[in-house]
Each structure stands twice: as C-alpha cells, then as structure tokens.
Design a protein that fits this description.
InterPro entries: Cyt_c_biogenesis_CcmB. By secondary structure, the chain is mainly alpha-helical. It has one domain. The chain contains eight helices and no strands. The longest helix is centred in the middle third of the chain and has 31 residues. The chain is globular. The protein starts with a helix and ends with a helix. The relative contact order is 0.14.
Length: 219
C-alpha cells in the first residue's frame, strides 16, 4: 500500500470512528458554543477590536482541545498495531488533515456565533478573513498535531501539551490577530505579508513534524 493510500485509509478510519463516537467532537463544539455564550453575557458592548480579540482566543483554545485528542486512540498496545499498519509519515499526515478539518469547523462556527450574538458583522473583508482562517487552521493543526504526538509518547500529559504548544503558536497567533485586525478595519498595510508569513509558518510546522515525527513514533 502506497503512502497516499495509507493516508486516505487512516483519514477515512478517523472520520468513521469520530462519526460512531460523536461525543468527543460534540464536547469540542459544546466548548465553543458555551464559551461564545459566556462572552455574550459578559461583554455588553461589542466592537471590532473586541470581536477580533475574542475570536482568536476562542479559536486557539478550541483548537488546543481538539488537537489534544489526536493520539488518544493510539495509546498502549495499539501503538504497536499502528506501527505495523502504516508509516509514521502517513499517520501524521492523516491526523494533520483530520485536525485541520475540525479546526476549520470550529473557525466557521465561532465566526457565525460571535456574529449572531453581537448582532452585526464586523468583518469588512470576508474573503481575506476566510483566507486567514484557512491558513490559521493549517498552522494550528500542524503544530498541535505534532505536539500531541510528543505528549502521547510522554504519557499523555495534558500539561505537557499546553506547555509545548503555546510558545510554538505565538508567532502564528500574532500574524492571525494582525490579519484579523485588517479584516475588521482596525489596521491597514502589510496585509499580504501577514498571509504569506502565516503560509510559511504552516509549511515549516508541517515539514518539521514530518522530519521529527518518525523518530518520536518509533522510539
């Protein structure tokens, strides 16, 4: 079986497993909905700056919760089964693609809920904002998937996941916040560089994961 076939097979297995056990995905989506509702109750006067700041906060923690579950099913003796089933690179890419889809779903859901509760759309450049969401989802997924693998091999410590992931995503979050600021009309200039740098970080994160993950997984 080729690497591409292994990736597609593992991704299909992830989706089917998630569909049969929807409580895990439901808990992530419930977190996003509950957090957005609490924001609505706590923040009386929404503004473009408030929307931009709260949006990325909700997205980051939602992505962290989703990404932290990446390798829970491969713990214990199942690790050896997956070791013989597919290559380490295929496993990482399948997890990366799955987490990317989940983070994109969280991104769109958070955007819709914040817009609904605030009563108006603060995004003046929806196409640009959507591009930032797509690149942000790719970047967060690449970093969080690899960090989740490290945490799983170290015993599944959630604390380790949080400690390792936050410093790694700070540059990406900085770019995304600035890109979101442009999309809601807070800043202008350098908007193209924000997306280009975010794309470069996405590629770097995925490349580093592909190089280092086989050593982590086979240890």
């Amino acid at each position: 079986m080729s690497t591409l076939q292994q990736i597609l097979h593992l991704l299909s297995w992830e989706l089917k497993t998630e569909w049969r056990n929807r409580y895990a995905l439901g808990s992530v989506l419930l977190y996003v909905v509950a957090t957005t509702v609490v924001i609505y109750f706590a923040v009386q006067n929404f503004s473009a700056m408030t929307f931009n700041a709260l949006y990325w906060v909700v997205l980051f923690f939602g992505a962290t919760v989703a990404g932290g579950r990446s390798f829970l099913r491969e713990g214990g003796r199942r690790h050896y089964y997956f070791y013989t089933l597919a290559s380490a690179e295929a496993l990482l890419v399948s997890k990366f693609l799955y987490n990317t889809l989940i983070i994109w779903l969280i991104s769109l859901l958070t955007w819709g809920l914040l817009g609904f509760f605030s009563g108006q759309s603060y995004v003046l450049e929806p196409g640009y904002f959507l591009a930032a969401l797509l690149l942000g989802g790719l970047g967060l997924s690449s970093v969080l998937t690899f960090v989740a693998a490290l945490a799983a091999r170290a015993g599944g410590s959630g604390t380790l996941m949080a400690v390792l992931s936050f410093p790694l995503v700070i540059p990406l979050l900085y770019l995304l916040v600035n890109a979101g600021g442009y999309a809601v009309g807070l800043t202008s200039g350098q908007e193209t560089s924000y997306l280009m740098l975010a794309g470069a970080i996405d590629l770097l994160g995925l490349a580093v994961g592909l190089v280092l993950f086989p050593f982590v997984w086979r240890d």
